[in-house]
Amino acid sequence: MGRYSGRSIRLILMCVLSLVIFAVEISVAYVGNSLSLASDAFAVLSHLISMIVGLFGVRFSRIRWHKASTFGFSRADVLGAFGNSVFATALMFSIFVEAIKRFINPQKTEKVLLVLIIGISGLFFNVLNYVIFMDCCYCRAPPRDSETGK
């Protein structure tokens, strides 16, 4: 069997697609002066970071403890999730501040059709990402019996 399972390959594919979508959206947001497209691009970046952290967290959490690391890396996924949430919070705050600036001093969006097309493609990408992620999720819970709750 290869180094990566089907789940890992799909997660890596999602990371590559996310990187491409981020690059396209942030470029068009800059050219079109669109805050909404830039915020979606950074949301895609946040998802990309969380997928990478999840991929490495799952890999590192399998490493057992030894003398150099007494707890092993069992908390690597938790630490990664914390770092990603701090990044997402800082990103949200910076977008909020930029939105207030734009509310006070409105700016015209340039190349509206291009921004719209890229925005719609970003929406389709997010839906595709969701469908792929739900199929390869590492944290899928086993089905429970509705009568016993177990």
Automatic annotation (TrEMBL):
Domain of life according to the entry: Eukaryota
InterPro entries associated with the record: Cation_efflux, Cation_efflux_TM, Cation_efflux_TMD_sf
Keyword Ribosomal protein: no
Keywords for the protein's UniProt record, in alphabetical order: Membrane, Transmembrane, Transmembrane helix, Zinc
Transmembrane feature ranges: 12-31, 37-58, 78-100, 112-133
Cell compartments where the protein resides: Membrane
UniProt keyword Transmembrane helix present: yes
Predominant subcellular localization, coarse grouping: membrane
SUPFAM superfamilies assigned: Cation efflux protein transmembrane domain-like
Pfam families with a match to the protein in the record: Cation_efflux
Family affiliation: Belongs to the cation diffusion facilitator (CDF) transporter (TC 2.A.4) family. SLC30A subfamily.
UniProt-recorded name of the protein: Zinc transporter 10
Native source organism of the sequence: Willisornis vidua (Xingu scale-backed antbird)
